[in-house]
Amino acid sequence: MDTIVNDFSIQVATVNGSGSQTANTVLLRALFQMGIPVSGKNLFPSNIAGLPTWFTIRASKDGYIARRRESDILVVMNPETAAEDVAAMGPGSVIVLNDSIKVPPIPPDRIVYSVPMAKLMEPITTDVKLRRLVVNMIYVGVLGELLGLAEEEVERALDAQLGRKPKALALNHAAVRAGWEYAHTNFEKRHPFRAQRMNATQGKILIEGNAAGALGALFGGVTVVTWYPITPSTSLVESLIGYLNRFRKDPATGKATYAVVQAEDEISAIGMVLGAGWAGARSMTSTSGPGISLMSEFTGYGYYAEIPAVIWDIQRVGPSTGLPTRTAQGDVMFAHLSSHGDTKHPVLFPCSVRDCYDFGIRAFDLAERLQTPVFVLSDLDIGMNNWMSDPFPYPEGGWDRGKVLGDSELAELSKFERYRDVDGDGIPFRTLPGTRDPKGVYFTRGSGHDEAARYTEKPDDYRRGMDRLRAKYDTARTLVPSPVVDDQGRRAGILAYGSSHWAVLEARDLLRKESGVETDYLLLKALPFNDAVASFIAKHERIYVVEQNRDAQMAGLLKMEYPGHAARIRSVLHYDGLPIDARSVCDPIAEAETMLAEKHEAVTR
Amino acid sequence: MSDGAPKVAAGPAKNRIGLTRADYDGSKSTLCPGCGHNAITAAIIQAAYESGLQPHEVAKLSGIGCSSKTPAYFLGHSHGFNAVHGRMPSIATGVRVANHKLLLIGISGDGDTASIGLGQFCHMVRRNVPVVYIIENNGVYGLTKGQFSATADVGSTTKGGSINDLMPIDCCALAIELGCGFVARSFSGDQKQLRPLLKAAFAHHGTAVLDVISPCVTFADHEGSSKSYAYVKEHDAPLHDIEYVPYFEDITVDYEPGTTREVEMPDGSHIYLKKLAEDYDPTSRERALASIHEARAEQKLVTGLLYAEPGIKPFDDELNMVDAALATLPLELVRPPKSALDQVMEQLKTGKGVPSGGGGA
Questions:
Q1: Are B20 and B53 in contact (CB under 8 A)?
Q2: What is the mean pLDDT of chain A?
Q3: Residue A338 in contact with partner chain B when CB distance is under 8 A
Q4: Going edge to edge, which strands form the sheet with A520-524?
Q5: CB contact at 8 A, A359 and A353
C-alpha cells in the first residue's frame, strides 16, 4: 500500500452545540502548523443545538483549498446521521467510529477504527456535561496517531485555543492523550493517509472572511456601522465591534472614534448608513439576501440622490428564508440592479480573505468617490470558514474622500450646484451639512431634481440626470478592481468570481491532467465590467461562466452587456448550498470540450 | 417675547446672531392655500429666528407626504433631506451619529409616522435620538386624495362620507410610553402656543415629539372630520399658557406662587407653564397618559407640554463618542497604526486569542 502524504480530507459528523468546534480547530491548526496547506469548512444547521453538523478539513500538499466532494476519513459522532454518513464513504476510506453509535454493517473494504470513547472519558472527569463536550478531543488524539500528526503542534494548537482556561486545558489535554494512546496501543494502521511536515504555510495566517472584511473596514476608517443580525453576516459586524473596541478608543478619554448601531431592521440599518454617509461619515452595513430585499427602496434612493454607502452582502441560499446556513452566489443580479426604476450599482466580489480585507478598505474609497451605494458580495463559504492567507499588508497611502467641497473651496467659487457634472466624469461635487457658506446649501430629495437640486418634473431635466448617472457608471468601470486574467490565447476560457475561484483553480489542473483541455481564466472582481472583461469575451470562442446560482446570473449580465458575443457564453452552475468543488467545474467543461474536439475531428477527417 | 437682540434704528430687526427673520425663510410653499402646514412652517421660521439658530448647524429632514415637503419652505440656508416614506427617523439617526453638532428638525405627517413609519418612529424615540420631530397631523392622506390615516378618530368621516371605525394611534401617548423626554401637542392655528413649544424643543437633548393638529383644507376640513379648523377650535383644551425664556435673555418672570410651573432645560433656558383650569404637572408620565385618555373620552383635544423630562440621557451619550463629529475625524484618528495590524496578524498565525468560529442562525 502506497502512502498518501498530505492529500486527504477529513469529515467530522457531529451535533451542533456539542463543543466540537474547538476539537476541529485544533486539528485544522495542527495541520496548518505542520506546514501543510489546509482549509476547514463548517456545514451547520439553522439551529442553536442538537442538529447534525459536519466539519470538513482538507489537507492538500498542492494547495487546493476548495471543498472536495468525497471524504477520505470520516469521524462518526452523531448517531442520527451515522448510517447516512457511513454509507457515503467509498472503498479504501477510513471510518473512525465512536463505538457507542450503532451503524449498519460496513463493507470490508472500508477501514474501520472503533473507539470506546465513553469508556476513555470515564477516568478523565465525572462531570457528565463536561464528558459530552470533551469527548470530541478523543477523536483529535485518535486522528493524531492514525495520521501521524506532530504531537507538539497539536499541543500548541490546543494551548492557543484553551491556554487561558487552565482547567479546561488540562481536561482536553487528557482526552487527546487518551485517544492518542488508545489508537497507538490498539490499532494497526491499515490506511494510506499520512501527515508529514512540509513548508507551505510558514508565516501565513488563518482567518474567516468576515473577520477579514471587518479588519478592512477598521483600517479603511469606518466611523458608522449599522446592522441587523442575520446569518451569515453577523460575525462580520461582531468581529468589527471587537476590533473597534480594541483599537478605536481614544486612550486618554476612552471615547470612541466610531458608532455602532444595532438597528430594528435592515430598512433602518441602510437608512442610518445613508444619513451618516450624507453627513460625511464612512458608513457601512452588513447583511444577507433577505436584508438586501428590505434595503432595496433606500438603495435606489442612495443611487438617485447620490449618497455614499457600503453594503456587505454575505450571500446565503435561496429565495425567501431559503437555507440560511448554506452558501450561494444568488444575489448577483438583485444587488447589482437593486431597486425600482433604472438603477445599477457597483458590486465587488471578494474571492479570498485577502480580497475581503482589501475590498473592506477600497469599498469606502469607491463609495465616496462615486457618491453611490457600493455592494461587497461575499458569501457564507468565504465569510464563515477559515482560509489560509499571507498576512494582510498595512494600507499604503491615504484615503479617497471623493469630491467634497468645504468652506475654503466654496469661497473660491461663484456658485455651487449639487448635481452638475463640471469636469466630465459624471460625478458632481457635494457639500456636507455643517458647511457655513450658504452657497453650499442644497436640498436632497429622491424626487426629480435638476443640476441645482431643485424639484423638477420636466422631461428633459429627468433624462439629463439619468444620462449623467450613466456617465458616472461608466467612470465606475475605470475605478473598480480589475479582473485577474490568465490569457494564453487558448480557445476556451473560464470566467468565475468570488468563492468559485478555488474550485476553478483546481479544475483547470484537472482538465489539463485528465482531459488535456487547456483553458484561459478570468477571475472577475467587480461590476461594472471593464475593458479587460470585454476583450476576454471577444478573444475566446467559448467562455464557461462558473457560478453558484441556478439562473446563471453573471452569464445573464454578460449577455446583456455583450449581446454580440452572447452565443459564446456558456454556464457551469452549482446551487445545492454546499461550497462548489473542482469536480463540479471540471466535468461539464471536460465533457463539452471533448465533444467539440470529437466533432472537429470528425469534420476534418 | 423679545427678539433677543437690541433693535437697530434702520433696516429689519436682527436676532442675537445678527440674522433677520427673512434669513430663516425657505422657498415658496406649493401646498394648498390655507393648509395648516403653512402655519407650522411660519412658526418654525419665527421660532428659529427668535432662538438665534445658526442655519448651517441645522439639518432639516422629512419623509414623504404633504408635510414632508415643507422643509423646503423654511430655513433655506440649512441642508435638507427629503427621505423615503416613513423612514426619516433612520436617516436622522445616521446624520446624528455622523455629526452630533447638528440640530435636526424632522418633519413628518400622520401617515408617514403612524402608518408606514411607525416602527422607525418608535425606535427613534426608544433610542432617544436628538431630533425635533414634528408630526403635522391632519388624519388624512393628502397627496393621494383623502384616505384615512391611522390617527383619524373613530367616527370621523372622509370627504366622501365613509366612516372610520378603527382606533386612532395617539403618537403622543406612544412617545410617552416609549420613554420620550419631551412630548407636546399643539394646533397649527395656535401660534402663541406652538412657538414657545418649538423653541423649548430646540433646546431639548433627546427626541422631542410635537404632534401638531394641522387641518387639511382640501380633504379634512368638512363637518364629519375631527381635525377640521372648526372642530379643533371648538374642542381645543390647552393645559396651560406657555412662555419660554431662553438662557441668553435676561428676563425674570414674576408669577404668583402656585399659579405657574417651571421647567428648566439643560442649557439653562426655562419653560413657564401658567395654570389654566387645573394645575397640570408635566413631569408626571402617569398624569400625561391619563390626561390624553381622559381627553379622548371627553372628546377634547388637550394641547400643551404633555410631558417633559429634560435630564433624560440622549442617544449620543449612550454611544460615548469623541467630542468632534465622526464625519470630520482625520485619517490618523480612524486608521489604527501598523502595530495594531501586526498584533492581529500575529494572533492569526498562532490562533492565540482568536475565538473559534462556528454557526448560529
A1: no
A2: 96
A3: no
A4: A484-486, A520-524, A492-497, A542-547, A569-573
A5: no
- A407 and B CB contact within 8 Å: no
Tell me how far apart the alpha carbons of residues A191 and A387 are, in angstroms, rounded to a whole number.
27
| CATH (one of 3.40.50.970, 3.40.47.10, 3.90.226.10, 2.130.10.10) for B21-318 | 3.40.50.970
Task: Measure the CA angle with vertex B193, ends B190 and B198; round to 5°.
Answer: 115
Over the stretch B340-351, which tens digit does the pLDDT of each residue have? 999 999 999 998
Compute the count of residue pairs across chains A and B with CB atoms less than 8 Å apart.
258
Place of cell 437697530: B8
Domains, chain A, with CATH or none: 4-194 (3.40.920.10), 207-389 (3.40.50.970), 407-479 (no CATH), 484-604 (3.40.50.920)
Euclidean distance between the first and the last CA atom of chain A, given in angstroms as a whole number: 45
Cβ neighbours around A563 below 10 Å, total:
9
The residue among B55, B60, B53, B62 whose CA lies nearest residue B15 is: B53
Query: What's A249's DSSP letter?
Result: B
CB contact under 8 A, B87 and A267: yes
**Which cell goes with A135?**
469527548
pLDDT higher than threshold 60 for residue A296: yes
Spatial distance between the Cα atoms of A388 and A209, rounded to a whole number of angstroms:
10
Residues present in chain A in total = 605
CB atoms within 10 A of CB B35: 25
Chain A partners of B336 at a C-beta cutoff of 8 Å?
218-219, 247-248
Can you tell me the distance from the alpha carbon of A338 to that of A376, in angstroms, rounded to the nearest whole number? 13
Contacts of B361 in chain A (CB under 8 A): 44-47, 231, 324-325
Burial of B326 (0-12, 13-18, 19+ CB in 10 A): buried
Q: Which tens digits make up the pLDDT trace of A403-456?
A: 999 999 999 999 999 999 999 999 999 999 999 999 999 999 999 999 999 999
Closest CA to A320 of A43, A42, A17, A46: A46
ipTM tops the 0.85 cut: yes
Separation between Cα atoms, residue B30 and residue A493, nearest integer Å: 59
DSSP assignments along A355-397, one per residue: HHHHHHHHHHHHHHHHTSEEEEEEEHHHHHSEEEEPPPPPPPS
The mean pLDDT of A124-151, rounded to a whole number, is: 96
A252 three-class SS = coil
Phi, psi (rounded to 5 degrees) for B81: -145, 105
Dist CA B345 CA A392 (whole Å): 7
Cell numbers for B80 = 435638507
CA B129, chain centre distance (Å): 11
Instruction: Locate the chain A residue with the closest alpha carbon to B69.
Output: A445
Q: Which residues contact A604 (CB under 8 A, 6 or more apart)?
A: none
Contacting residues of A for B80, CB less than 8 Å apart: 442-445
Residue length of chain B: 361
Alpha-carbon span B10 to A10, nearest angstrom = 89
Please list the alpha-helical segments (H only) found in B206-280. 229-235
Task: Please report, as a single letter, which amino acid is at residue B226.
Answer: S
**In this model, does residue B359 exceed pLDDT 60?**
no
Reading the block at residue B31, the C-alpha cell is: 401646498
Q: Please give the Cα distance from A83 to A476 (Å, whole number).
A: 53
Question: Taking a C-beta distance cutoff of 8 angstroms, is the pair B81, A278 a contact?
Answer: yes
CA distance A183 to chain B (A): 27
What ranges make up the beta strands (E) of A203-308? 205-208, 224-227, 259-262, 283-287
Q: How many C-beta atoms lie closer than 10 Å to residue A258's C-beta?
A: 28
Are the C-beta atoms of residues A288 and A313 closer than 8 Å to each other? yes
pTM of the model: 0.96
d(CA B286, CA B307): 10
What is the C-alpha separation between B192 and A605, in angstroms, rounded?
99
